[in-house]
Amino acid sequence: MLIPVLAEDSSADAFTLLTGQIEDLREDMRIDVAYLGLVVNMYDGRRGYIATSSLESWQSLGEPPVVAVVPDRKEQREAVRSKQALLAYDPKCDQSERMREIARELA
After folding, report:
1. Is there a smaller number of Cβ atoms within 10 Å at the N or the C end of the chain?
2. Are residue 85 and residue 68 in the same domain, yes or no?
3. Which H or E run includes 3?
4. 62 Rama class: left (phi>0) / alpha (psi -120 to 50) / beta
5. CA dihedral for 42, 44, 48, 51, sign (positive or negative)
6. Are residues 64 and 25 in the same domain?
7. CB atoms < 10 A from the CB of 72, how many?
8. Rounded distance between C-alpha atoms, residue 56 and residue 7, angstroms
9. What mean pLDDT do residues 84-93 have?
10. pLDDT over threshold 90, residue 64
11. With left for phi above 0 and alpha for psi between -120 and 50, is residue 28 left, alpha or beta?
12. What is the largest CA-CA distance in the chain?
């Protein structure tokens, strides 16, 4: 499982809830779920201490590891607004290219 997260506190809270649900599912259904890692999405260090300290917190987790950091760009927000997948909205933007790199690295 590859989990996208944001470099902000609300994403850390959501991650804690999600991993609890995953653990419950593993136990109840007796299935194995492998954590491939975290992708810190829409990262912008110019946002200051919240973003940079959150990224450091994700990186310090150790397991699952941060496998990629994807920068915040307008194309992703525009894709959401137009209700399209990023790769369909702008397949050549920096974020789309980074997503492809991540897929190749994990394949």
Report:
1. C
2. no
3. strand 2-6
4. left
5. positive
6. yes
7. 17
8. 9
9. 96
10. yes
11. alpha
12. 43
Q: How many domains does the chain have?
A: 2
User: Residue written as tokens 């201490």?
Assistant: 49
Query: What does the DSSP assignment read for 11-74?
Result: HHHHHHHHHHHHHHHHHHHT------EEEEEEE-GGG-HHHHHHHHHHHHT-SSPEEEEEE--H
> Mean of the pLDDT values across residues 61-65?
91
- Neighbour tally for 95: CB within 10 Å: 21
Residues 6+ apart with CB under 8 A from 27: none
| Same domain, yes or no: 68 and 17 | yes
Residues 6+ apart with CB under 8 A from 90: 75, 78, 79, 96
Do 66 and 88 lie in one domain? The reply is: no
Show the domain range for 105: 73-107
Q: Residue 68 and residue 83: Cα distance in Å, rounded?
A: 24
Do 66 and 35 share a structural domain? yes
**12 and 61 both lie in a single domain:** yes
* pLDDT mean across residues, the chain: 92
Reported pTM? 0.84
